[in-house]
Design brief:
- By secondary structure, the chain is mainly α.
- The protein has 4 helices and no strands.
Length: 79
C-alpha cells in the first residue's frame, strides 16, 4: 500500500469518488455538469486563496480535508 497525503492527491480524486456515491436518480448529464462546475470553480478559488490569503501549512491540510465536508454538505441539496 502506498500512502499519499491529501495535498499531494489534490481535490479531484475526492470529488470523483463523491460523484460515484450520488443517487442514481441523477443522470450522467447531471453528473457531468457537477464535475464541470467543480472544475470551473475550485481551482480559481484555491489559486485566489494561495495568492491573496495568508495560509499556514496546517491550513493547507484543512483545505484538503474540508473539501470532503463541503461535498457531503452538497448532498443535502440533491433530490
Amino acid at each position: 500500500m502506498i500512502y499519499l497525503e491529501p495535498v499531494t492527491l489534490g481535490w479531484r480524486p475526492l470529488m470523483l469518488s463523491w460523484i460515484n456515491t450520488l443517487p442514481e436518480i441523477l443522470s450522467a448529464n447531471h453528473r457531468d455538469f457537477i464535475i464541470e462546475f467543480f472544475e470551473f470553480v475550485v481551482d480559481p478559488i484555491l489559486e485566489f486563496v494561495r495568492k491573496n490569503c495568508k495560509v499556514s501549512q496546517c491550513m493547507v491540510y484543512w483545505y484538503s480535508s474540508s473539501w470532503e465536508t463541503r461535498l457531503r454538505a452538497t448532498e443535502h441539496h440533491l433530490p
